[in-house]
């Protein structure tokens, strides 16, 4: 097996000192997920990972990237000593990018980064050696870690790039040295750090600073801030492809048919239409899929193979994944759960409620004869001074017309709870943990339940509690349309 990193290569990349010769097959920052043969990177975060170097080596790590010899570790242990561990990881990431001829795609946006990254993964699978970010590794350590893990023989790489504050995206995009840069959308997220939506647009557009000469910028056509994105793309000399629903978009959503389990859509491009499908309901998913198809064309790939690969995509856990929770295996009845507990802002909240509205409950199978659509909504974080008004505004979303009950979690969601019509007003809890004792009473057989909120409000605890009510099983009735 070809080593991902040798001590000689890693020392040359970082300017560090190897205490002995070693070869690593992977890169890890966590002893809980470390595999034998990994290079363990001792980052300082909540805790200093130098405290875990001995444990990592005992678990089979090939070596450790450190800024000093940790206490309890022999000086002749396999180490790579650098002045600063994070900077050392960044240097590994840049070196990994420099040694490969891969086409690298960077993805950012206020909503849909991870889903779009996974769509790209599905589309590119089987079309070459593929490397893509795990989970949401999109920050100051996640991007260099993803790059450092990239084998030299990679053909395509997909890098997710996120931000919380101004000035974060451009350095990460430059590190990734992009061939394509894709912006999913610009929406009200992280407003606490920006003056307004225009500031967010400028920060998202900074991803174009990481494009190689002749690179391609893929961006949404229909937004009020689209001119900001176009201006930045033009300033970098990028080729531009736009996607959206409006006339004039290079990749236009000509139609979209949504069922409870899938979206079948048509893309209008270059005087022709292309049919495609994603295995989840949602117009927002169809729009992101347009951007993915545009990326495939920019890479010179077969459009039919791209559509076929895209059709295999399903939302990952915590991002709209739908599953059946069987509470009575004998009668084969239970409720459907939509797990969207990882991220929330006004745009993604609206999209998730629209998906819930498309779902069909089952009648006459539970304690309550009529199956219900139920939403369990947690706080949307980092929205700035207007956060309470943005939460209350959810009560006016048209999709709520078909929702029987809305349970709310968090101090900000108290604003929505108050604004809801009395008939739709379910429970309110300060924290997700406060709602757990009532999990069994919140749902009934035949219901369809959406759980949605920002990661920090921990409504994923409620998802786990609902799963424990029965026997989860992936849905298989994907429909025929």
From TrEMBL:
Binding site for ATP: 109-115
Gene3D superfamilies: Mur ligase, C-terminal domain (3.90.190.20), Mur-like, catalytic domain (3.40.1190.10), MurE/MurF, N-terminal domain (3.40.1390.10)
Domain Mur ligase central: 107-295
GO MF annotation list: ATP binding; UDP-N-acetylmuramoyl-tripeptide-D-alanyl-D-alanine ligase activity; UDP-N-acetylmuramoylalanyl-D-glutamyl-2,6-diaminopimelate-D-alanyl-D-alanine ligase activity
Organism: Gemmobacter aquatilis
Subcellular location: Cytoplasm
Keyword field: ATP-binding, Cell cycle, Cell division, Cell shape, Cell wall biogenesis/degradation, Cytoplasm, Ligase, Nucleotide-binding, Peptidoglycan synthesis
Reactions the enzyme catalyzes: D-alanyl-D-alanine + UDP-N-acetyl-alpha-D-muramoyl-L-alanyl-gamma-D-glutamyl-meso-2,6-diaminopimelate + ATP = UDP-N-acetyl-alpha-D-muramoyl-L-alanyl-gamma-D-glutamyl-meso-2,6-diaminopimeloyl-D-alanyl-D-alanine + ADP + phosphate + H(+)
GO biological process terms on file: cell division; cell wall organization; peptidoglycan biosynthetic process; regulation of cell shape
Pathway: Cell wall biogenesis; peptidoglycan biosynthesis
GO cellular component: cytoplasm
Matches recorded under SUPFAM superfamilies: MurD-like peptide ligases, catalytic domain, MurD-like peptide ligases, peptide-binding domain, MurE/MurF N-terminal domain
Protein name (database record): UDP-N-acetylmuramoyl-tripeptide--D-alanyl-D-alanine ligase
């Amino acid at each position: 097996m070809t080593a991902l990193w040798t001590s000689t290569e890693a020392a040359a990349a970082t300017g560090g000192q190897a205490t002995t010769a070693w070869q690593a097959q992977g890169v890890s920052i966590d002893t809980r997920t470390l595999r034998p043969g990994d290079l363990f990177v001792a980052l300082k975060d909540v805790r200093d990972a130098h405290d875990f170097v001995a444990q990592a080596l005992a678990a089979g790590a090939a070596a450790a990237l450190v800024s000093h010899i940790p206490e309890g570790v022999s000086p002749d242990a396999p180490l790579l000593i650098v002045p600063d561990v994070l900077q050392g990881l960044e240097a590994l990431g840049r070196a990994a990018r420099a040694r490969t001829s891969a086409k690298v795609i960077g993805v950012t946006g206020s909503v849909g980064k991870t889903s779009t990254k996974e769509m790209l993964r599905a589309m590119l699978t089987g079309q070459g050696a593929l490397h893509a970010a795990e989970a949401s590794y999109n920050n100051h350590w996640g991007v260099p870690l993803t790059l450092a893990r990239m084998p030299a023989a990679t053909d395509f790489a997909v890098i997710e790039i996120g931000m919380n504050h101004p000035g974060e995206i451009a350095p990460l995009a430059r590190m990734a040295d992009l061939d394509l840069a894709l912006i999913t959308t610009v929406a009200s997220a992280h407003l606490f750090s920006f003056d307004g939506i225009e500031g967010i647009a400028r920060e998202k557009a900074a991803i174009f600073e990481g494009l190689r000469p002749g690179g391609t910028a893929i961006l949404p056509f229909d937004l009020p801030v689209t001119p900001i994105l176009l201006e930045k793309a033009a300033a970098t000399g990028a080729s531009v492809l736009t996607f959206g629903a409006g006339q004039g978009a290079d990749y236009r959503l000509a139609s979209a048919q949504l069922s409870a389990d899938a979206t079948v859509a048509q893309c209008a491009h270059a005087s022709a239409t292309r049919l495609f499908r994603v295995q989840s309901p949602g117009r927002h998913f169809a729009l992101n899929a347009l951007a993915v198809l545009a990326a495939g064309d920019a890479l010179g790939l077969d459009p039919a193979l791209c559509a076929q690969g895209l059709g295999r995509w399903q939302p990952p856990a915590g991002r709209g994944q739908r599953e059946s929770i069987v509470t009575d295996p004998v009668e084969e009845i239970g409720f459907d759960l939509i797990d969207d507990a990882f991220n929330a802002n006004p745009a993604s909240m609206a999209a998730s409620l629209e998906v819930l509205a498309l779902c069909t409950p089952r009648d006459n199978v539970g304690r309550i004869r009529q199956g219900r659509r139920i939403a369990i909504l947690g706080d949307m974080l980092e929205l700035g001074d207007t956060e309470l008004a943005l939460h209350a505004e959810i009560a006016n979303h048209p999709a709520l017309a078909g929702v029987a009950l809305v349970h709310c979690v968090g101090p900000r969601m108290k604003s929505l709870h108050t604004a809801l019509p009395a008939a739709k007003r379910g429970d309110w809890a300060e924290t997700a943990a406060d709602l757990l004792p009532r999990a069994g009473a919140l749902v009934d057989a035949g219901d369809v339940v959406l759980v949605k909120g920002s990661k920090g409000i921990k409504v994923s605890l409620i998802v786990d509690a609902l799963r424990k009510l029965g026997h989860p099983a992936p849905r298989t009735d994907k429909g025929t349309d």
